Amino acid sequence: MDSIQKGAILIGLSVLATAGVFLLPAIPQSTAYHHFADTRRILTIPNFWNVVSNLPFVVFGLLGLRAVSKAKITGSIPAIYGVLFIGVLLTGFGSAFYHLSPNNDTLVWDRLPMTIVFMAFLAAVVAEWINRRVGFILFIPLVLFGIASVWWWHHTEVLGRGDLRLYGLVQFYPTIFIPLIIIFYYSPAQKTSLRLFLSIVLWYLLAKAFETLDSQIFRYFPLSGHTLKHLAAAISTYYFIPLFARRYVAGTTTPAADHPRDRCFHG
User: Fold this and answer.
1) Which residue segment(s) compose the domain that 135 sits in?
2) What 8-state DSSP symbol labels residue 256?
3) Which residues pair with 241 in a beta bridge?
4) Is residue 145 part of a domain?
């Protein structure tokens, strides 16, 4: 399969997925979403463990920004990862804020930074595995689309006809699109990058499983599924750091070493 055919499949799948979302009925936010298993108040902090379990996002966001600040190149790749790590950092604050008083209004501040992470990651995958220039061209529109999906959901909730379809697309489509890109464009020289990408995806999927089993886990363990979801999701974001640092921070491989196709697109 040549590059044109691969690109056509990826573009076609994206168009079909976006169109397919609008064939579904509007999906309102269930009020049950805000009812978490662990509501313990500790040190005067309500929902203590669901609040403080967001601290790793802050730590990994700061460590990621530190890695970007040490990058030995400038241009598109550090810009994408810089915004990604800002999204990780803000996810820690936004999710903690939401869990202090869970409701649709505070949930906006939880979801906004997460969409930045989702979309920046997607742009990074395109840039790293397909073409850096294309990844950077898509970067800002993708991030804006992610932010717009949260705005649209909240706007429709205020109007009494909540619609989560676009946010669902932003959250779940990358879990299909990214592995497909990796399958299409993998080469043996990218073995380490593949391992890191898979670690990101697998820890994120584990986080979603913990989220689904919130009360069941809390029934048998001292921490709830939702608290474990935060920790697993944070571990997922940790792998962005070595993914970036191994190629772009001083002392690691050269930017083009394992991506010969991108030697003309260093920024």
Assistant:
1) 51-256
2) T
3) none
4) yes
DSSP E strands, 118-163 = none
Residue 53 burial (CB < 10 Å; 0-12/13-18/19+)?
A: buried
Does residue 22 lie in a domain region?
no
pTM higher than 0.85 for the full model? yes
Token digits for 24? 């579904």
Residue 88, in any domain of the structure: yes
Contact 53, 96 (CB under 8 A): no
Which of 176, 251, 234, 209 has its CA nearest to residue 53? 234
Name beta bridge partners: 87. Answer: none
Residue 42 sits at φ, ψ, to 5 deg, of -130, 135
- Average pLDDT over every residue of 71-94: 93
Give the pLDDT confidence score for residue 40 in this predicted structure: 97
**Residue-wise pLDDT tens digits, 86-110:** 999 999 999 999 999 999 999 999 9
Residue 105 near residue 29, CB atoms below 8 Å:
no
Is residue 143 within 8 A of residue 174, CB to CB? The reply is: no
Output the domain CATH number for residue 172.
1.20.1070.10
Distance, CA of 153 to CA of 151 (rounded, Å): 5
Largest CA distance in the chain: 60
Structurally, how many domains does the chain consist of? Answer: 1
Q: Give domain status of residue 142, yes or no.
A: yes
* 245, 64 contact by CB (below 8 A): no
Task: Retrieve residue 114's tokens.
Answer: 């997460």
